[in-house]
Amino acid sequence: EKKDKPEAKKEKAPKKEKKERKEGGRKRKRHETYSSYIYRVLKSVHPETGISNRAMAIMNSFINDIFERIATEASRLARYNNRHTLTSREIQTAVRLLLPGELAKHAVSEGTKSVTKYMSNEAHA
């Protein structure tokens, strides 16, 4: 194991700019990202691997893109079925339509697992 390069900087909460006052006395707009979550997943899968700022920006952009595609498709499905509410069913169908084969199956099973875990949580009720 080489220790030439310093460890990747550990991210904490989602990156947000501080609410410093500008010249006009206005607050800065918050800029939230998924970087802390991406970092956590990376460390759980490959603890020794770091990630550059550019790669983090690309991953963040990718997650935003996939999120928007799923939300748009789920919204379209709800509209087709004269529904006003997006449920896990619309999200699941959108994922099945957007992602190819095996990837869709894994995404659906992980989503189902997460919803089950959320619903079984006592604090939820």
Question: What do you see in this structure?
Answer:
This protein has a domain at 52-120: Histone, subunit A (Orthogonal Bundle). The chain contains four helices and no strands. The chain has helices at residues 35-45, 53-80, 88-98, 101-120. Helix 3 (88-98) packs antiparallel against helix 4. The radius of gyration is 19 Å and the shape is extended. The chain starts with 34 loop residues before the first helix and ends in a 5-residue tail after the last helix. The model has no long low-confidence stretch (mean pLDDT 86). Residues 15-97 form the Core Histone H2A/H2B/H3 domain. Residues 1-11 have a biased composition (Basic and acidic residues).
* Oligomer status: single chain
Write down the secondary-structure element order: HHHH
Mean pLDDT: 86
From the N-terminal CA to the C-terminal CA, the straight-line distance is 48 Å
Largest pleated sheet: none
What is the CATH topology descriptor of the domain at 52-120? Answer: Histone, subunit A
- Outline the low-pLDDT stretches: none
User: Pairing-aware structural class of the strands and helices?
Assistant: mainly alpha
Report the CATH architecture of the domain at 52-120.
Answer: Orthogonal Bundle
| Helical stretch tally | 4
Helix content percent band: 55-70%
Give me the Rg, rounded: 19 Å
- Which overall shape is indicated by the principal axes computed on the Cα atoms? extended
CATH class of the domain at 52-120: Mainly Alpha
- How many extended strands? 0
Q: What amount of the residues lies in strands?
A: under 5%
Q: Could you give me the name of the CATH homologous superfamily of the domain at 52-120?
A: Histone, subunit A
